[in-house]
Structure formats: C-alpha cells, structure tokens
C-alpha cells in the first residue's frame, strides 16, 4: 500500500477504534490491561453500523484536503453517526480545542468514551457540540439539501455529503437529488454526494441496498449525475478505489468550472454494515446485516464470552500502535489537515464566524405615506417586495429568497427587477423572470427550500422563505430540528450566532378565496410557539408599514426563528412607519385613534391583518349604535410579547400588560389563528379570565373573504355583539345593533350566494373616526 494510503488506513483504524469504544467503555481506554466488567458502560447506547463508512469517508477527505489544499465541509446524513464524527474531531484536535476537558491524550480519550450517550455528556448523533457539524442527526432526509445550501455563494468550498441508504428512502432526500441543477459552477461550491449502501435500515434491508449496480447507475444518470462506484470489503483495495474516485471527482468538478457544463460526479460506496466489527455473535451473522445497526454486541458488566469478544474486536485495530502513550501516532497525525482546513475546525461549520451583517435598505424609501388611518389601500407584500428588491441589490452575494413557486403569487415579484428566479436548465423565449444568474430559488418542494435555506444560514449567510401559510406545515419537523440545533448551539459557549431563520407566510387562511378548505390552516404559529420565546418570535403585522418594520428587524437578528404572517391582498393601511416601528418595539399597544376610553366597558383586541380590520369595523358599529359605550382598542403585532418575562425575556411586564388590557373589562380578542394559542400565551396574566378569544375554528370552504370570517366568528358583527353582551349593555341601542347585525348577515348571505362577492357595504368599508 502506498505511504499516503497507509496513513489513510491508520487514520481509519484509529477512528474506528474510537467510534466503537465510545459505545462500550468508561475506563481502560487503551486496553493496557484485559477488560474488566467495571470498564464497561452499564447502558450501551449508540449506532455502530454506519460509523465505519463515515470514518472511511473522513479519512479520504483528509487525504485530498492535505494533498490539494482545499476547504471542505463534511455533512453526515446517516442519523446516528455521532461516534464517527466525534472520533474525527478528536483525532484532528478540534474537539479538544472546543472541549478542553477532553484533551487529545489518554485521559481525554477516557473522557471521550465516558461522555458518549451518557448523562451530562453528548448525544449519539452529530449534534451542535460536535465540531465540524452543521447537520443534526435527529431526523433523516435533509443532508443533501443542507449541503447544497452550504455551497451556494461559496465557490471555493467542497461539501462532502454522506447519504445513508436508509436516508435515501425519504421523500425529502429523493427530491434533493435535483439540487445540483441549482448550483452554478464558479459562483457556487462543489457538492460531492457519497451514497453509502450498507444495505440495511434498523431492522430490514434498504431499497437501494437491494438494487443491482446497473439499476443504481441508470437511476442516478437519469437524475443528471455521473456515478462512480467503490464496492467491497477488503480494506486495501477499497482504499485504492476510494482514493481514485475522490481524485476523479475533484478533477471532474474542476473541468466543469472551467468549461461551464458537464455532469456532476457522485460516489456510490457499497460496504458492509458494521464493517470491521464482529462478524458473528452467538452464532448469528452481524457484520453486513441489520444486527450491526446499533450495538452489535451487548456486553453485560460481568465476566463472560461477550466481554472477551469485545476485547478481541477492539484489539484488532491495534490501539497500542495507533495511540502510543495515549496520543495519535505521527502516521495518524500526518493525515490531519492544518488549522481551519481540519474538518472539525472549518469555519463553514460555525457560520457565525463568517457572517457579514446585511446592508439593509432604509424602510423610509418604501414606506407608505398615510393621510389618516385607513385612508390608503395597498398590498402589504407588494410593498415589502419592493424593499426586498432593494435588499437583494445591496447584498448580491449574501442574501437569497427561497420559496415553492409562490414569489409572484405572494406579490413579492418586484424582486425580479433585481434578481430573477434561478434557471435550473435552458431558458426559453416564453419564460419569465428566469436566468442562470438568478438568486430567487424556487422549486415546488418545501423540504428543499427549507433545507437549502438552513444550509445557507448555518454557513453564515442570510435568507427568507416565503410560502402559502397552509403548506408551511410540510416543514414542521425541519423547523423543529433547526430550532433545537440553534438552542443547543447557543449552549455550547463556542459557536458564534448565526443569522435567524425567517419565514414569510402569505396567501393566508382568511384570503383563500378560490383554493378553499385545504388551503386554510394557521397552525404553524401554534407549532412554533411551543419552542419558547427565547428561540421563536411570531409576528402578525396589521399593514404594510408594520410589515416593513418587522422585516428590517428580523433580518438583523441572530439565533432565532421568526415567523411573519401577512396578507397579500389590498387592505386599508393604519400606521405610519414611525408608528409601526414603535408599535413593534412594544409588541402590542393601544391604538388611541381608534378607541382609548380610560375606563373601558370592553376592550377589543386584534392580532393579524384581517382580524384587525374586522375588529376596527366592530368598533365603528358599537360607536354608531351605542355611542356612550366606553371602549378601548388594542393591537398585537408580536404574539410572544404577550408572555410574561418569566417565559419570555422580552415579554411585557405585568404592569404594562395590565395597563394596556386592563383587569376589569372583558377583552374580546380577534386572533388570526387558533384561539387556544392566545390563552396559552396569556394564562399567567392577572386578567386572563377576562379574555374571550375569537379565531379560526376549522371552518372553511371556497367562499368570499367576509363569509370566511363569519364562518369562524371573527367577523365585525360577531365581535361587536360579543363585546356588547359581555359588557352587560342593554337598551335601545343594543337592540338596534342586534337587529342590524341580523339583517346584514341575511343580506350578505343572499348577496354572496347570488353574485359570488361580498356586499358593497362590507367590501368597500372604510374607517371613519366616529367619536
């Protein structure tokens, strides 16, 4: 074996020893004496099966980094490949740099083993405490999307992406094979997928693992890749073939960059599951079977054949040769790249170190000028689109807009004046806003949009994902994983803050006039709220200037997930930009121009653009029929501000909450989403029992905008009558208001079912200060 491959093999054996020993040992890390029961963990947890393949890839990645002087990021897709990732980081020294209590010596090796899957230690997957990782192993399917997002605008970066054959069965990963069509050679980096066929999931064979080589070759050629195969189980031959394949792939990419075209290469690595581990246990085959997936050899803390078999297995790696005196040997260290080129030390895996703040355009340049509240009608997302176009112009290599074919539908198409959609193939004369230079990333897969954006953010850049509100649920689990990653990263003490994950949800529940019930679901807010206000913020801007204020705020934040819900249809505009910024800073507040009696009989509150409009219309009804009734109007733009400081570090104080909402009058709260969320956020407040929340009640169909509000009880008539009844008001004006509302509901029903539109009195309603 050539010297360079002997070093690769030594590094690989060292990493395999470390990976296996993490699962089993709490002491005797170098096997300086025969193993004893007390050296063994009481609970043996972790996943061995995928680890040898991951260490094999890392070993060969190190070789090309050292020989070619390239920057590389390693994304480990197989879910619980933590032992392999930790082993690599410890060998290159980056783990000890981030975790000084785990030095690169015998004592550190002992601690490395002890802490794995252990109380107070580290998880069994490649999590935030693992140097060099951007990919949480808690859920499968997103590695290739993350790798592609990391490569966007990173022309000098190679992303080696390990994809397990179990992971390859997921829909998200299957779609991700198209991602290479969105990478522009020379502008973006090189993503090199390694599909690892070890044949088995946790208990059964994988689909790809049972496919013939010819089928796999045809499949990936059909996807547009040039697959290279490395297959077998004999280490020396596998090292030779993998080295040749890696060199061929890097050379091929260089040609593609130079020539501007060509099939991107990928590697198909077929090796046994649990390679180099126990071949049999108790007479049953293990290596190369599903039995190698997790803990291939269960070792009781007692003398017996399994204890001796474990020792024999570990000694096969020759730890005394690999770790003389407890430190990696010179041969092993010869394969460790220098400085930031180490896989565990690359700044691309700690993207906050590379982050450059966005150059935000002045919102004043795009804000609407209002003569009075409600005097101007406009589309909030149209206004935002013009600001985003300016933002993209100012940040040509640091910001991208992502969305599943809804940029134009959500009325953000002004961005196309700055940057069209990226063209994943030839551009035809009949195409619109499509270019190989485009930075608006559209593909009809929410999984891909989310995965690309996450990879982009994790490597230090900025972005925004726009979607229809109902279908953002497709990435519920991805959002959950990313938020957990940010939380864990913030607790490491060494990861730098990364740009926030920002969603803009439009075409929302209240304005799905032609799509109907399937497109009506505001529940993403509820899903996110459970993650806690220190990580998540939920914004419901009531108008265009408020949306501008929210956008400029969230795009300057770090280590957060910000969800903005804003309508795209023309609506009345309420706040100047100055007022909108002040309103956002407070989170919620009294709109004195609407109603602010010092001792209100009812407080009418609203969160969301359509609920705000209907609530204000309810105020005008009450002023018209019961002018003597004392009212207060409150608007909420930041839902999480409703929580007290004990739950939200930026939540409103109890004194301020009580000053705004009061502690005596009923609060009729008109909410954009499910009513339970408002109760959840306010249940610790003094006046919580006074809150009566209206919101989406899972009633929907294809109908007019007003009918949709009426079906769910957030319409102006329902809000006005509820305020009237809960305040205890009776008398002539109350009776007249009841009759008016009953008559208007009947007229609206007849009119809408005859014309397909709302009544002109409703459709053309405008705010008039009737005080």
Structure report:
With 771 residues, this protein is of the alpha/beta class. It has three domains: 337 residues, Thiamin diphosphate (ThDP)-binding fold, Pyr/PP domains (Rossmann fold), CATH 3.40.50.970; 210 residues, Rossmann fold (3-Layer(aba) Sandwich), CATH 3.40.50; 170 residues, 3-Layer(aba) Sandwich (Rossmann fold), CATH 3.40.50. The protein has a six-stranded parallel β-sheet with strand order 12-9-13-14-16-15, with helices on both faces. A five-stranded parallel β-sheet has the order 1-2-3-5-4, sandwiched between helices. 37% of the residues lie in helices and 13% in strands. Belongs to the XFP family. Keywords: Lyase, Thiamine pyrophosphate. InterPro entries: THDP-binding, Transketo_C/PFOR_II, Xul5P/Fru6P_PKetolase, Xul5P/Fru6P_PKetolase_C, Xul5P/Fru6P_PKetolase_CS, Xul5P/Fru6P_PKetolase_N. Its EC number is 4.1.2.9.
């Amino acid at each position: 074996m050539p010297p360079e491959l002997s070093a690769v093999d030594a590094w690989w054996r060292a990493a395999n020893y470390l990976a296996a020993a993490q699962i089993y040992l709490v002491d005797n890390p170098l096997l300086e004496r025969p193993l004893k029961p007390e050296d063994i963990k009481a609970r043996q947890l972790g996943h061995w099966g995928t680890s040898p393949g991951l260490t094999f890839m890392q070993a060969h990645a190190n070789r090309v980094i050292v020989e070619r002087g390239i920057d590389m990021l390693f994304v480990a897709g197989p879910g619980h490949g933590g032992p392999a990732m930790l082993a690599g980081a410890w060998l290159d020294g980056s783990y000890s740099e981030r975790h000084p209590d785990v030095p690169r010596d015998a004592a550190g090796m002992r601690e490395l083993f002890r802490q794995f899957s252990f109380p107070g230690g580290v998880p069994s997957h490649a999590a935030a405490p693992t140097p060099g990782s951007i990919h949480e192993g808690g859920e499968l399917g997103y590695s290739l999307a993350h790798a592609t997002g990391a490569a966007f605008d990173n022309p000098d970066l190679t992303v080696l992406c390990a994809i397990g054959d179990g992971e390859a069965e997921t829909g998200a990963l299957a779609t991700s094979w198209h991602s290479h069509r969105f990478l522009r050679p020379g502008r973006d980096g090189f993503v090199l997928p390694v599909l690892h066929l070890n044949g088995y999931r946790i208990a059964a064979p994988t689909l790809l693992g049972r496919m013939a080589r010819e089928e796999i070759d045809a499949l990936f050629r059909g996807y547009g890749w040039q697959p290279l195969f490395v297959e077998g189980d004999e280490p020396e031959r596998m090292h030779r073939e993998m080295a040749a394949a890696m060199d061929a792939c890097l050379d091929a990419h260089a040609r593609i960059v130079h020539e501007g075209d060509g099939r991107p290469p990928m590697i198909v690595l077929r090796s046994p599951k649990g390679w180099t581990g126990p071949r049999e246990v108790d007479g049953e085959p293990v290596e190369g079977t599903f039995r190698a997936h997790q803990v291939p050899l269960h070792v009781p803390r007692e003398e017996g054949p399994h204890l001796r078999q474990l020792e024999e297995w570990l000694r096969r790696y020759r730890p005394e040769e690999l770790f003389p005196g407890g430190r990696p040997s010179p041969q092993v260290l010869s394969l460790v790249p220098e400085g930031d080129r180490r896989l565990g030390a690359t700044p691309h895996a700690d993207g906050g170190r590379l982050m450059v703040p966005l150059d935000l355009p002045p919102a004043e340049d795009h804000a609407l000028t209002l003569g009075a509240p409600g005097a101007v009608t406009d589309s909030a997302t149209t206004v935002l689109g013009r600001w985003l176009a300016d933002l993209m112009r100012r940040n040509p290599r640091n910001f991208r807009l992502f969305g599943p074919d809804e940029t134009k539908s959500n009325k953000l198409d002004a961005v196309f004046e700055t940057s069209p959609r990226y063209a994943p193939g030839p551009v035809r004369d009949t195409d619109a806003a499509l270019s190989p230079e485009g930075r608006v990333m559209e593909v009809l897969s929410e999984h891909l949009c989310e995965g690309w954006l996450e990879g982009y953010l994790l490597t230090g850049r900025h972005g925004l994902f726009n979607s229809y509100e109902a279908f953002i649920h497709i990435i519920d689990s991805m959002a959950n994983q990313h938020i957990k990653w940010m939380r864990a990263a913030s607790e490491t003490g060494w990861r730098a803050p990364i740009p926030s994950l920002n969603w803009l949800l439009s075409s929302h529940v209240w304005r799905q006039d032609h799509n109907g019930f399937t497109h009506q679901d505001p529940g993403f807010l509820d899903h996110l709220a459970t993650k806690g206000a220190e990580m998540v913020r939920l914004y419901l801007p009531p108008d265009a200037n408020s949306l501008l204020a929210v956008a400029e705020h969230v795009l300057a934040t770090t280590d957060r997930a910000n969800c903005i819900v804003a309508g795209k249809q023309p609506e009345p505009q309420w706040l100047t930009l100055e007022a909108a910024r002040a309103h956002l800073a407070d989170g919620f507040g009294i709109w004195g121009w609407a109603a602010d009696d010092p001792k209100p009989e009812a407080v009418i509150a609203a969160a969301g653009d359509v609920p705000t409009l209907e609530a204000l219309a309810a105020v005008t009804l009450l002023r018209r029929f019961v002018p003597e009734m004392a009212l207060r109007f409150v608007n909420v733009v930041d839902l999480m501000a409703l929580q007290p400081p004990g739950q939200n570090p930026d939540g409103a104080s109890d004194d301020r909450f009580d000053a705004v909402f009061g502690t005596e009058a009923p609060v009729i709260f008109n909410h954009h989403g499910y009513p339970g969320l408002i109760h959840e956020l306010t249940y610790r407040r003094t006046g919580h029992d006074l809150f009566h929340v209206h919101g989406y009640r899972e009633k929907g169909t294809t109908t007019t905008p007003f009918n949709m509000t009426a079906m769910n009880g957030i319409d102006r008539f329902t809000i006005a009558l509820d305020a009237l009844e809960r305040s205890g008001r009776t008398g002539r004006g109350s009776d007249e208001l009841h009759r008016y509302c009953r008559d208007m509901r009947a007229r609206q029903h007849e009119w809408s079912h005859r014309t397909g539109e709302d009544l002109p009195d409703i459709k053309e309603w405008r705010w008039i200060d009737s005080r």
